[in-house]
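Re: the pair you flagged

First of the two:
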Amino acid sequence: MKAKLTQLVFPLLLVIFSLVILRPLFSEQLLYTDDAELHAARVANYYLAVKQGQIPPRLAPNLDSGYGSSVLNFTYPLPYSISTLIYMALPVTIVLALNLTIIILVLSGVLGVYYLAQKFSLKPRHSALASLIYLTAPYTLINIYSRTALGEIAFFAVLPWVMWNIEHFMGGKKVKPIVSLALVGSLALLLLSHQTSLIISAPVLITYYLLRAKNKKQVITLIKRIIPLAAISLLITAWYWLPALIEKKFVILDRADTVTHYLDQFPNQWSFFFHKIKNLERLDVLKIVSIGYSNLLIILISLWQIIKNKSKSRKEVKYLSIIFFSTIILIMPFTRPLWLVSGLGQYIQYPWRLLSLVTLSSTLLFIHLTKNKLINNFFIGVILATSLLSAVVYAQPRGFQSWSDYELFEYFKTTTTFNEFQPIWAAEYTRHFPQEKISLRVPEKSLYNDDVLQTAEYAQLKIQKWNGSAMSYVIDTEKPVEAIQKTYYFPGWELVVDGQKRVIQYQDEEFPGHITYSLDPGKHQIELKFTNNTPPRKIGFALTLIGALSLSGYLFWHKKNESL
């Protein structure tokens, strides 16, 4: 009875402590951070897209001054889906829905680490401390209070649960079908979170689990167990990642300044190790990123144990220590040439983003050291004290900002730093912008020439329906005209004129990137709709269906055989 009570008390205390740390988020005001307003605007547009019939949302209908943005086609859908569901289910504002999403995600990560540590047979208090190390790491709190790095927060909310599920497959024991389902689900959620974090973490974790295996036979068994489930997760999420991968050639992502921007993102090596608590500058991430004293203490204890050669989990401890130090080296400015040669900066964007591996390796090191009784109570107390100190220093908002739902629904920017998701045929070459939702031009004339007749003189326009995902209107013209719609073309837009599907022109010399088409004299019914009718999206949906069927077949076979 006492043991069961203890198992309840510590998770509850963790939740309470986490909520204290996250208390500024229980507000209808938005944190003043690098990206908070951008994510709030995306949530608003994600909701609008769903409301307008986009399932799943791919086009942000009101962004980029109403021209529409393909940002939702490429960015992680998990946190935006949660925020949208909260907004639809509860009487809250967009801002509060976003804040509650962050709270839910952080709590998920904290509890995930706790139960992961329990898998290593740690005492509840030690499992709780592992969670605190994870929660109060400078990088974790910077992601919340200085960056609002929603994708990374989502990734590290799911990652501990993926690892918790994998632990069930270690050691050759029987695994219930529900565990296989849980692993597929958690892997799928991971794939729908932050892809950059996945690129960073996947090789490290794969190697970690291979090292955990006791012999070659166990390695083969683990691979046979995990690979099919990972493949099913990949198939199930193909509706998202396949179009994102293939259709990125239609945006300027690879030509944006992000390709080389990372070269200016190396932190100062001295403040990185020994950060001043006084006068903490929160306006520049480069000035506040640090390893954290708890993490430094853990790695020093780990090194001491390796030197003494007394570690009972020497492989894991040694490997995690190597990851820790390799990461630190890669973040240092003198490694710029290596980043340039490897091309990693294009995908990681910020070298200090590798601090996520420092947090991960430190947490796992603490678990292994504690499991094998290689860390005494004195150092546990010091780690606890430094973790609490980190919370005091970093869990502070640098200010708040007010955004109404209306302002977020009408947000006119692209929500990206370099407008990297604008279409390649528009972003860098646009000459003019139409003044109205629909502008009509006499063929071979310019809208900006003085001799062009005014639309009202030869044509009438009646708009029946207009939102960022679908438009319906009537054009009655006495002359042949070219219609220019104030919408950027992106694959998926379909045009129907008088019941007949038409090819959309979008490479007009005067209005490049805009949806353009020609009309003969007469009265015409125009329908435009953003759809999923592109080859990558159709194939993605087909693969998702195959994945769902494969999962059903796998679970049926698994249940029949009772074990893997």
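Second of the two:
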Amino acid sequence: MVGFKSQVSVFIMSEYLKEINNMEALCSKQGETWKGINPEYAARMKLQNRFRSGLEIARHTAAIMRADMADYDKDPSKYTQSLGCWHGFVAQQKAIAIKRHLGTLKKKYIYLSGWMVAALRSNFGPLPDQSMHEKTSVPSLIGEIYTFLKQADAVELERIFSSLDESRANSNKSEEKNLLSQIDNFESHVVPIIADIDAGFGNEEATYLLAKQMIEAGACAIQIENQVSEVKQCGHQAGKVTVPHEVFLAKVNAIRYAFLELGVEDGIIVARTDSLGAGLTQMVPVSKEPGDLASQYNSFLETEEINNVAELKEHDITFHQGGKLVKPVRLDNGLYSFREGTGIDRVVLDCITSLRHGADLLWIETERPNVAQIAEMVNRVKEVIPDAKLVYNNSPSFNWTLKFREQVYEELKSKGEDLSSYPDPSSDPLGLMSSDLDDSELAIKADKYIQYFQSDASREAGIFHHLITLPTYHETALGVDTLAEGYFGNDGMLAYVKGVQRTEIRRKMNVVKHQEMAGTTIGDHHKEYFAGENALLAGGNENTMSQFG
């Protein structure tokens, strides 16, 4: 590698070269004892590992999210997005792909789903989304993801450093200047993670302890839901049981205290409500004065009016409501029912209450992706809190094709258009899924709605962040299914070569050089730094990676 000294005067304003000068000064103080240390190599290694702890990452990414939230408040077209990632490598390749194809990672995050952790990362084996996985699984995955994202930084910078050495060797001053600019303006792959703490995995102290671990691993945003911790269900499953606001807010406070204790003042709390789909509650909270939170919560309960105390059974619970003595309907399992049709009102109350008590963003779990439905609830919240913002789950649990084709069918029906060529959803529930309809006017319009769902919902329904909880769960399954079908079938090796490797090469994906992606080149350069000409290198012509250029 070419030394730096002769180049310093030419590009003195480069931050990279300033860092080299700093290292040179530091080494000079040590005299002969540090003569084996090259200041430029040390500067490179420092730049390749600019985040030295999870807390540094959490503070850095929290600031990014806060700035993005402010941008969205000014312009709802500036929404943010993420994909759920179940492994560090998946997150790494996602970040690399975004940067390569779009040129920037701005407003692109990573979502860490409790669903994916349960299904793919639990020591118990594959589990449903019911908070049965180990508490420490999520912090562990956060740390793993950031390890891979930092390595993506190191790999990309290594390529730039190598190009810089080549430009110096060829005395190409303009290219050298360009590469120094790339180093100085390098955009890190380290992006915000929104991490799912489910329902807190216990009481508020347990929530606090787990939140600390997640923040220390690098999470700047934590999502928590208002279900009963020990019987938590996926938002798209039945059997959901909510807790009174006081119980939920104690956990919101616990997370905030964790952020503050660790010095992450910009930390973000996402408060999720499952009230739209939850018809049960675990307890009847105690109301201390008319109109308080407990009173409002209890007003949604299904009750029976008691006209005569003789109607009461032993151990029945009663309270006064609206001037009447009522008994809340209690099931055999001890849970209490909410009245039918109260879901939207409960969602609105949940959202307003959460924002008034420390939450930064909302999450409303719905049963279908419908902009108008989401907007109905969010706009009611905005009447009270104008800058309310939503995180929304673009869930694979929705049948997007079917639900949007149904939506268009109803629109056309309301306009009196002829629908005789389409199956009637009321008599043929899955008929609109037929591939025969893919080129129809209805299907094309539905696909347009799907294509622009995110921008439409961000503009009309206050959605700041769009995520997909488990896309890479499904994408992995699809990829393996396709490869296995061909490889173990008639295509043999061609299934891999044509379906995977040839595509990687032609898309110019770095991962085709898997050894380099895993750190071979970085390791070789480190060996040269440490051992000089005595280094035993893994690269070179004999390494088969050279076959890929």
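Residues 472 and 478 are 9 Å apart (CA to CA).

-B.
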